[in-house]
Amino acid sequence: MVLTRFLSLTGKAIMMKDVHNFAQKVKPGQRNDVQQLIAEMKKAEGAKVVLFTDSDKTVTSIYFQTKEIIQTFQAQPEILLIDATYKLNDLQMPLYVLLIVDGNGEREIICLWLTQCEDEGTLTYLVDEFKKHNENWLLVRCIMCDKDIMEIDVLVNCLPNAKMLICLFHTLQNMRREISTDKLGISQAERTMCLEVLTKIAYSQDESEYNQLHHQLKQC
């Protein structure tokens, strides 16, 4: 089971690659049991395991942190990355992974959410739970996530001190969708040129290169 194996790493820094590596080891048909998962989570030192249930007392969301990863966030809270990973388990519950960037530029996982519901109310409860257990949330200065509007709205409302950024992949994807011959009334050649320059801008190494490319874009 991906998450059970994942819990064995709670005594050391946990990297995003660990989650993906475990996903590759899951055997087809292997069953993830919610109660077993919760029991494994609670074994971790200083574990914060919070369950959210519906009116029938069925678990709909699970919040999980360990003492180790809480301390990791406390030490380096400035940049917060949030991503939802699907099909890592057969609980039909997307796995939300919260990460920070350490002094070496490495990503370290600092919180996990499993949730059947991805509505505004549920995500707000999960963010509020994170704030409850992590007093340095006020020091978060930058949040990077995907293009999901609901997720962005919740983060903006719950973490007002932080600047929101959309990851580069989705930024370029949105550019390709919005810059079209039909929407902007431009030729295919003009569209291709604009996208090439914008892609270079996205990968600018410094302000000077950005300004040069920005000037080039205005000439397109």
UniProtKB/TrEMBL annotation:
<dbReference type="InterPro" id="IPR048324">
    <property type="entry name" value="ZSWIM1-3_RNaseH-like"/>
</dbReference>
<feature type="domain" description="ZSWIM1/3 RNaseH-like">
    <location>
        <begin position="42"/>
        <end position="165"/>
    </location>
</feature>
<dbReference type="InterPro" id="IPR052579">
    <property type="entry name" value="Zinc_finger_SWIM"/>
</dbReference>
<protein>
    <recommendedName>
        <fullName>ZSWIM1/3 RNaseH-like domain-containing protein</fullName>
    </recommendedName>
</protein>
<dbReference type="Pfam" id="PF21056">
    <property type="entry name" value="ZSWIM1-3_RNaseH-like"/>
</dbReference>
